[in-house]
Here is the input.
Amino acid sequence: MTPWFDPTQIFIGGRWRPCAGGQTLPLENPSTGEEIGRIARGDHRDVDSAVQAAEAALQGEWGTLTAAERGRLLLHLGQLVTEHFDQLAEMEATDVGKPLQQAKNDVTALRAIANSTAVPPTRLWAKRSRFRPGSPSIPCANPMA
Here is the structure.
């Protein structure tokens, strides 16, 4: 299986970049022991960069999205899972060594979670609810009037 990404790169802050240590790890199919690919081996520097990027995103554009906008992004994720269903299931089955049908069940669950978590913010809060940095954002079943 040819990867769609550079296995020496790590995704942090919305972009691919070389991992700090420049090393990779083998991915093995646990059912066969066969090496199926390689991925970047991040280290503590990459973790620090990821935490900084997450904090910046929360203080920036992501943190200012309305609940409805976040909901639309989750619905889009569910749509992408549907579009790439077979590929995701095959990758999951190979990566963790499980039967393909079980992997398909897992991808179905992923799609359901993305879609079901998108609905409450889209329907209950619409554009009124905004995340405020430093404040918890807790979904609840009380629609705003």
Q: What stands out?
A: Helices lie at 44-59, 61-64, 67-83, 85-96, 100-125. Strands lie at 9-12, 15-18, 23-28, 35-41.
